[in-house]
Amino acid sequence: MTIKKETGKIPIIAGVTGHRDLREQDISSLKSAVCAGLESLLSEYPNSEIKVMTCLAEGADQLCAETALEMGLEIITVLPMPVSEYAEDFEGDALKKLNDLTERSSKAFIAPHKEPFKEGRDYLYRQAGLYIAEHCHILFALWDGTPGEAGGCGTASIVQAKLRNVSNGSAGEQLRRSEGAVVQIATPRISSDRADIEAGRIITHGDKSRSDEILRDTDNYNKDCADIAGGCMADDKIAAVYTASDRLSIINDIKDRRVLIGLSACATALTIAFLLYDEAEWHWMIVMCGIMIISLFAINAFTRWTRFNARYVEYRILAEACRVQTYLLTAGINREVTDILPWNLQVNVPWVSSAMSAIMTGKRSGEKKSILDTWISDQNEYHKKALKKTELQLRRNDRMVTTALVITIGTYIAALLFEMICCGMISGTSMFAPETNDSVRTAFKLLMGAFSALTLFANNYYGRLALPNVIDDHRKMALLYEEAEREIADKGETESLLLRIAEDELCENANWYAYQSKHDEGLGI
After folding, report:
1. Are 241 and 355 in contact (CB under 8 A)?
2. Could you read off the pLDDT of 299-328 as tens digits, one per residue?
3. Chain segment 81-94, per-residue pLDDT in tens
4. Pair 298, 366 in one domain
5. Which of 455, 473, 374 is nearest to 408 (CA)?
6. 56-85 average pLDDT score
7. Nearest 10 degrees: CA dihedral of 305, 309, 313, 314?
8. Is residue 56 assigned to a domain?
9. Which residues fall within 8 angstroms of residue 248, CB to CB, at 6 or more apart?
């Protein structure tokens, strides 16, 4: 059997919830509205694969699934219970559609339980609805707008869960930032006597601008992913996304550093050119000053347009989230990174949280394996090596700045001695002609100005890399994993310990994001 290779792209998932008792006369209008909604996603986000996630319940769910398949889109089926039990709620044509659509689904799985267990089918239906609400980018609700009861399993309750993004998990109340929008497709019901509903009318609920931003960022990532060789194929979706985001992060980091070098070089050249124009009276240097100023603005505009630093930082956060998620699954822990993602990452890079939910769709841990060597010890060794490398880089920077400063001071002393001995500051008699003295003074001014500029911009360049903060991060992470190794030796690889390590690593990633995101190349360099 050939295993389908996964790409590093993030699918945009449209979830579905809706009424079962549709009116026959509304079917055409509802299908047109669903088709329009999906076509809008396809046109606005051309670099992304659109998938539709549904429970395949009779009525709205099956209508949306059929529409998606007719458009050539994949459907993902989230079952509230085994299909043999689920089928007891279907009969006739609806039962045939359930079996057919389940077979045609790219994935079909039973929803895990997010809330404490309760008896009854309504509880199971609610868990499936909550799973869709939490794992989709946007929720299509074929709904009449009537409010539902808190904790219910109906369409209105699932809409409420999507907009609030809060569910009672096994570890207590899970609070996650609500990011996705709900696209309501007005849907009259057979069981309702409401006459004020126009079938197929679109109403958007939630923060649409925020939702659009998440979808744009996801699509931009997918575009970047398509530009790297092979799209980083792998047998597992999480592994493919990790490989792609890791590679893209490195690529953008390199580009970002080149921009910093370019800005530093242009700014230094501008300073030296102005000194030559002012002190050496090389009047043509004013043209060079103009060229350097234009270059600075051009580089500045280019870097703001390309967002190399922002992409480097955000793709790194995505890669690290994938890394943590992989190790949790390997350790047999069915906990999603999005449930423990620090709040500032949820707020500042919401598309990463949505991406992790999307790629975790249908994913469950397998047989528990030890991760001491592959995660704990490996990360300890990595952070120790990275700490030494960054400390070496900081020392190299300090030596460069110190050398430039010593040369500047040496130039000043040489200028002082020249004035005292050669220009008659002490004796009152100059050893050289005034023209010579002026030429030497100009040379000293140029040297001092040039080395001062080089010192300032070299220090600023490395300062923008936040080396002291990076050193502090690697030191803390090395200590974290050293302590983890000791605790594992004493207590074993317990779920509580591994979850705590995962949370600590994500918190450190959040701290890293906080100072790296403040790095703005800008003309301030």
Report:
1. yes
2. 778 777 878 888 999 999 999 999 999 999
3. 999 999 999 999 99
4. yes
5. 455
6. 96
7. 0
8. yes
9. 221, 224, 225, 228, 311, 315
**What backbone torsions phi and psi does residue 168 show, to the nearest 5 degrees?**
-85, 105
List, as one string, the DSSP characters of 352-374. Answer: HHHHHHHHTTT----S----III
Contact between 75 and 101 under an 8 Å Cβ cutoff? The reply is: yes
The end-to-end CA distance of the chain, in Å, is 57
User: Helix, strand, or coil here: 51?
Assistant: strand
Main-chain phi, psi angles of 166, to 5 degrees: -125, 130
Q: Pairing between strand 12-18 and 107-110? A: unpaired
- What pTM, to 2 d.p., does this model score? 0.85
What's the token pair of residue 33? Answer: 């509205």
Last residue of a domain, one of 222, 251, 283: 222
The answer to whether position 231 is within a domain reads no
What sign has the CA pseudo-torsion 111, 115, 119, 121? negative
Integer Cα distance of 239 and 60 in angstroms:
34
DSSP string, 122-156: HHHHHHHHHHHHHH-SEEEEEE------TT--SHH
Q: Are residues 339 and 299 in the same domain?
A: yes
Q: Under a CB-based contact definition with an 8 Å cutoff, are residues 501 and 376 in contact? A: yes
Q: Which domain holds residue 34?
A: 12-222
Is 468 inside any structural domain? Answer: yes
Q: Output the CA torsion sign for 134, 137, 139, 140.
A: negative
pLDDT per position as a tens digit, 171-200: 444 456 666 789 999 999 998 877 788 889
Count structural domains, the chain: 2
